[in-house]
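In response to reviewer comment 3 from the previous cycle, which asked for concrete evidence that the modeling workflow produces usable outputs, we include below a single protein chain processed end to end. The sequence was submitted unchanged, and the resulting structure tokens are shown without manual editing.
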Amino acid sequence: MNPASKIIPTNYTVSTTAVQIETSPQNEKTIIINNFGTAAIYLGNASTVTSSGANQGYILAAGAVISLAINANAQIWAICASVQASLNVAILELV
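The workflow returned the following structure tokens.
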């Protein structure tokens, strides 16, 4: 990893309303998403992500971690089916 790269930990509370956890980065970057909550969350690329049906997002189980390489101008949204989930997002900025 380049010494100029940095990790920016960020916490979100995810509920039944979609929350944006990545807001159109200027450069490509890698983000690590850790679901510290007790409920699964669903990840998508738009505010229309849901926990079921046609717009169901990618499921991230409670306690699970995922690493995503995202392009500039990407958006990541999260939603929970019924209970609030605490979501820890570590953003690794590549330079």
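The two ends are 9 Å apart (CA to CA). We consider this sufficient to address the reviewer's concern, and the full set will be provided in the supplementary archive.
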